[in-house]
Design goal:
heterodimer; A: mainly alpha; 3 helices; about 35% helix; flat; B: alpha/beta
């Protein structure tokens, strides 16, 4: 299996990355090189095997915790916004979305 | 005392508790050594903050409220967020970022009394095996400045090896503590996945990332690890609710009868002769200490490369979607609309390896490919973890090389990412299985470069690993060797 430059353009859009033509070219070559070693995975029979997300699940039941939906952190709006590129009156500014 | 920078964490803690030196004296010595930023190991230093912390430590030492590591300096890999130092994760996209809080690991080491020296260089978002992917320039290996320090915790390894910090934190996703520790001749341990909180550790691959200490000896690593680990159940959903443990308590246990598993797949033709000789030498030392070597097999070792390089980029592509030029860090200057702003910001802010992994990850998660790649990788991941459980029926710990060869020269693999990926073969299996693993200095190879022995333990057996490493360090002096001029 081999990716095409159309695949790269599609994925770059999904990933919200603007790629220069030479970058797309390089990434295409490199990803196809990498998928050469991924082929070995496809030959493995995994019938009946549960996918593993938390590795300690190899020896015990693990469920990822959910905590009650209550505020557990103090309000630090100013501190949280101190590194934002554009802020006004406590709001994050983005380019106009609705004309 | 002129050689403060060559003292162990243990020795510094003792001198501080007995007030033979002050925390300010120790901090001043290390700050002086970091002047001019040797090896490009540090990304942020703030002597005012460090000295204020040291003064507070001296006050606690004077009034009897000192923590066990009071006044001992530590530096943090730049993927841990810190309130008092800049945090970039080695990326341009986070330039100028200030965290409103400290990562749990940072805060726990502060509670133990440690004084923060600064933040350490690393591969961008911890993606790399050579520290060549930092947006702030590569770190040099203190043993040979023409060679890489390993990665991604390259700044951490170089700082400890060069006496720029007595200890450092690192993170290990696919080998990022063990491999640089091996390349720089220091000791490092990655605990069982879930033992150290990931809260405030900038996420690369959430199901793999784990924090751990890097220092000169197993004893020092045990001191830090005891302070770092512990449940953080309200803030990290993957944190295991386990009590803290004193990893120093069993360091001196006898190794008589310890069964060390030797996986045949770790000693194949890809292993360089110099690394093999050093590893074999360490294994002979273990036999002298009463351990028995048991041949074992980890049959899916090679598969761990594609499995890891599917799972980690998939999780990374999701985690790194938060860097969008809105909430923190860099934003592109010229753009036409919101989507264009995202795309340009991310194009400018991310480096090549990060873009490559985001692209790979987005592809394997995309419609029509998820089952064939991500799900298949997660299934084989379980088979790899099961292989370890089978092996542990016959042995107590597993030993082998950390990396197939010693630290390479800058630029050797630069245009071939797959060559870097292949070099991770011996660290990836334990990462995928979430097992504790460490690197212990085992000798020297080509060019006088350090070689690390990898020890892998079963889940929650960090104490046993540290015991095995400590006993080796009582019998050998590889961990006491220093690069010229340190």
């Amino acid at each position: 299996m081999s990716l095409t430059s159309q695949d790269i353009a599609r994925i770059a859009n999904l990933a919200r990355l603007e790629l220069k033509p030479e970058e797309s070219e390089r990434i295409l070559t490199q990803i196809n090189g990498f998928f050469g070693i991924v082929e070995a995975m496809q030959a493995i029979d995994t019938t009946g095997i549960e996918p593993m997300a938390h590795p300690v699940a190899a020896i015990q039941d693990i469920t990822l915790r959910l905590r009650p939906d209550v505020a557990s952190e103090p309000n630090q709006r100013d501190l949280n916004q101190q590194s934002a590129p554009a802020v006004e009156r406590g709001l994050f500014l983005v380019p106009k979305v609705i004309e | 005392m002129s050689d403060l920078h060559n003292l162990s964490v243990k020795a510094l803690a003792t001198l501080l508790q007995t007030k033979e030196v002050s925390a300010v004296e120790v901090a001043t010595r290390f700050l002086a050594r970091t002047g001019g930023n040797p090896h490009n190991a540090y990304l942020d230093i703030n002597s005012e903050v460090t000295l204020a912390q040291a003064q507070a430590s001296d006050a606690k030492l004077a009034n009897g409220t000192a923590g066990p590591l009071e006044g001992v300096p530590v530096a943090h890999k730049d993927v841990f967020v810190t309130r008092d130092f800049a945090t970039t994760a080695g990326s341009k996209i986070l330039s100028g970022y200030r965290s409103p809080f400290d990562a749990t690991v940072v805060q726990r080491l502060r509670t133990a009394g440690m004084v923060t020296l600064g933040k350490l260089n690393c591969d961008e978002f911890a993606m790399g095996s050579a520290n060549e992917n930092s947006a702030y320039g590569p770190v040099q290996n203190p043993w040979d400045t023409a060679r890489v320090p390993g990665g991604s915790s390259g700044g951490s390894a170089a700082a400890v090896a060069a006496g720029l910090a007595p200890a450092a934190t690192g993170t290990d996703t696919g080998g990022s503590i063990r491999q640089p520790a091996s390349f720089c001749g220091i000791t490092g341990i990655k605990p069982t996945y879930g033992r150290a909180s990931r809260y405030g550790m900038i996420a690369y691959a959430s199901s793999l990332d784990q924090a751990g200490p890097m220092a000169r000896s197993a004893e020092d690593c045990a001191l830090l690890l005891s302070a770092m680990c512990g449940g953080d159940i309200d803030r990290d959903s993957t944190s295991l609710d386990m009590p803290t443990e004193d990893f120093n308590a069993s360091l001196n246990n006898s190794l008589e009868g310890l069964r060390i598993g030797i996986p045949k797949e770790f000693f194949g033709e890809g292993l360089a002769a110099d690394v093999r000789a050093a590893v074999d030498g360490a294994l002979r030392e273990y036999e002298k200490l009463g351990a028995k070597l048991v041949p074992i097999s980890l049959p899916r070792t090679e598969l761990s490369i594609p499995v890891y390089y599917i799972i980690a980029p998939a999780e990374a592509s999701s985690n790194l979607s938060r860097f969008d030029g809105v909430k923190f860090g860099h934003r592109a200057k010229d753009y036409t609309d919101l989507v264009d702003m995202y795309k340009k910001t991310r194009a400018e802010g991310f480096g090549n390896e990060v873009k490559r992994r985001i692209m790979t990850g987005a592809y394997v998660l995309s419609h029509g490919y998820y089952d064939a790649y991500y799900l298949q990788a997660q299934k084989i991941r379980r088979m790899i973890a099961d292989d370890f459980q089978n092996a542990f029926k016959e042995c107590d710990v597993i030993a082998g090389p950390v990396a197939p060869f010693v630290a390479w020269r800058f630029g050797d693999n630069a245009n071939d990412p797959v060559a870097d990926y292949l070099a991770d073969i011996f660290t990836l299996p334990a990462s995928l299985a979430g097992l504790p693993g460490m690197s212990v200095p085992a000798g020297f190879g080509t060019g006088g470069m350090p070689v690390g022995l990898q020890l892998i333990g079963n889940y929650f057996k960090e104490a046993q690993l540290l015991n095995a490493a400590h006993r080796l360090q009582q019998a050998t002096d590889f961990h006491l060797q220093k690069p010229a001029g340190v």
